[in-house]
Amino acid sequence: MKTPHIPAAADLSLTVVCAALGDPIRMKIVQCLASSGEKNCSGFEVDHISKSTLSHHIKILREAGLIRPRFQGKEHFYSLRTEELNLRFPGLVDMLLTENERAKTVLSV
Amino acid sequence: MKTPHIPAAADLSLTVVCAALGDPIRMKIVQCLASSGEKNCSGFEVDHISKSTLSHHIKILREAGLIRPRFQGKEHFYSLRTEELNLRFPGLVDMLLTENERAKTVLSV
DNA sequence: TCTACAGTTCGAAAAATATCGAATTGTTAA
DNA sequence: TTAACAATTCGATATTTTTCGAACTGTAGA
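Output (structure tokens, whole complex):
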């Protein structure tokens, strides 16, 4: 298992991060992780996409520096890089959390 | 002159906003406006793109709800929708300002 | 009215991205 | 060792985005 590249906090680019968040599936994954910690691929509540497509989106999020993998057996658990993101882009994670709450509220009202 | 559509603060989508910011030219324009108020097309410090391409990027920023035009004579002045953005996505404009400062610092050191 | 100017729109081409199924890697359990 | 499973990678295709030049719109001044 070769460990994938995870950029350091200082190397993150806001443009690259925004591009990664600028896709509905990836935004969903990130908000999911922001609100409820660690999940593996089957835990993301995304619908009707193949596993190869999901893997592609995960790679983009990882390379942008938004998420971090943890390997346990045959599962890959992903989590948001909250501390690094708070350091490099203060307010971003809060924004994602707020947005996630808002999405729930707007739909349920 | 037909007035272009400007979405209300409540209608802004974080995904759409991030997609708009996920392009280096558009990120540059937005940071430029965040740091120094109103500008027309010739005021954005972007290099080597045709005016039709610039116009295209401006349209995406406008439709995402990030910028607002003001028409004066033959010039179109654009500004960041700071108040609305602070209402809908608290922390976003600060992040853009911080990033703009950081870019200057990193380059000049 | 004519011309110049600022900017947008149109249409086409190029480049990038998203998507999928099949093949592959690595892990665990039978 | 074999099979099942989780996930990634590969190769191809479809879709979207970026980009440009040309044509167009609206404004101001000669």
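The radius of gyration of chain A is 14 Å.
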